[in-house]
Amino acid sequence: xxxxxxxxxxxxxxxQLVVRMVRAxxxxxxxxxxxxxxxxxxxxxxWTFGERDLAWLWLALVAAAAAxxxxxxxxxxxxxxxxxxxxxxxxxxxxxxxxxxxxSVKLVSWRRGWRQSxxxxxxxxxxxxTVHEKPGRGPAGVCxxxxxxxxxxxxxxxxxxxxxxxxxxxxxxxxxRLQMQQVQDMRRRASNDRRRGRPAVDPVERELRAKLKAxxxxxxxxxxTAPQDLG
Length: 231
What we know:
Blueprint: H1 2-29, E1 40-43, H2 53-73, H3 80-96, E2 100-103, E3 107-112, E4 117-122, E5 126-134, E6 142-149, E7 154-156, E8 160-161, H4 162-195, H5 203-225
Antiparallel strand pairs: 1-2, 2-3, 3-4, 5-6, 6-7, 6-8
């Protein structure tokens, strides 16, 4: 029994090592936020309690461990082939059904399950964000982010295990709250400008105007320092 458990632990550890490497590449090359970088993320862990998709992952890992143990215990090394196939199936399913949440400076994005559906909500549309936790013993606790939109709609994001995931989910929530505060500050400044009779200026337009002013001042300084033709 101990040998079988050791095979299961080895299969799981190797699978998680490969999965994390592949996911790191995917997060860098194809962020959920599209053209923007994902500033904070959390994802569903393989021990997230109550997730049906994870049952297939664990069944494949158990099959791989059982076949690998049988191959060495009974010296039937042909059983290594189904062990490798089962392990590869677990790896493929883990990557295919990967659920995660990402927040950038403008968007909250999430990806759900084996259908690989990706959805996004602009931070400017959010009214509130909370972390909902369902306590449980050890890794049995789960948590998730819940978004409240400006029209009152509630959006529940993918779950993750509280054991190792709660802190990451709270980091995502705090980052979203910070971006929401910045959006509110911009709206407040725009409202104050309208009250004073000045048209509100878009931040991008303000930056372009500053660059144009600096360019003009640079040209004027160059003209003043140019040598004069004394004929």
